[in-house]
């Protein structure tokens, strides 16, 4: 099945060990779904604009070739568009779909095709559902929520398996499996000796890639916080120059999200 919004809520509640865990993880998924819609909407607007312009004019109207780092500099200087959607942090998933995406994305390049905005919303709402299974303290033992260290890397695969067990289509379940980092390859698993079966855990379509990118802008580390594109660039570099290069390529394609309005709306800090 492709789950409805009501079924997504049920899937979260079914696996959540406590209300505290639900609030943390479900809120993160809602935020990622919102950002994924923003990114997909921006890509679709670029695609539509390209299709309605003569070829030469389309080339001239394409986003600047200065690259992701120039866009980052503009965001840091406060030049990015960043209109909020007006949806509160306590909104339901249904509210999320009812409100158009904001315009808080700057830059980006024309995608090879239109991106399914509904599908990225569903994927965003489910991508981290396996995180409930990697909590060392899950809110039922009187201790603050805490993730289980090295086991955390398994949350994508555990979420994928949980969704399949509950009748969710393979295409949807893959949003959980294929969103870690900027694409976890078989070589990465082997080289880093990760506790995962050796395989590629990378997006297989644009919708999954959009959710993977959106996920980088919000962290569940307690307290939950928003992450700027610049901060994630530094984080990506810790895993090697190739990892950083891949992230910068994704920024160049999808544009840079200004997280300030969302951080204010949800009352979270920005790092």
TrEMBL record:
<dbReference type="InterPro" id="IPR006674">
    <property type="entry name" value="HD_domain"/>
</dbReference>
<dbReference type="GO" id="GO:0016787">
    <property type="term" value="F:hydrolase activity"/>
</dbReference>
<feature type="domain" description="HD">
    <location>
        <begin position="115"/>
        <end position="217"/>
    </location>
</feature>
<dbReference type="Pfam" id="PF01966">
    <property type="entry name" value="HD"/>
</dbReference>
<keyword id="KW-0378">Hydrolase</keyword>
<protein>
    <submittedName>
        <fullName>Phosphohydrolase</fullName>
    </submittedName>
</protein>
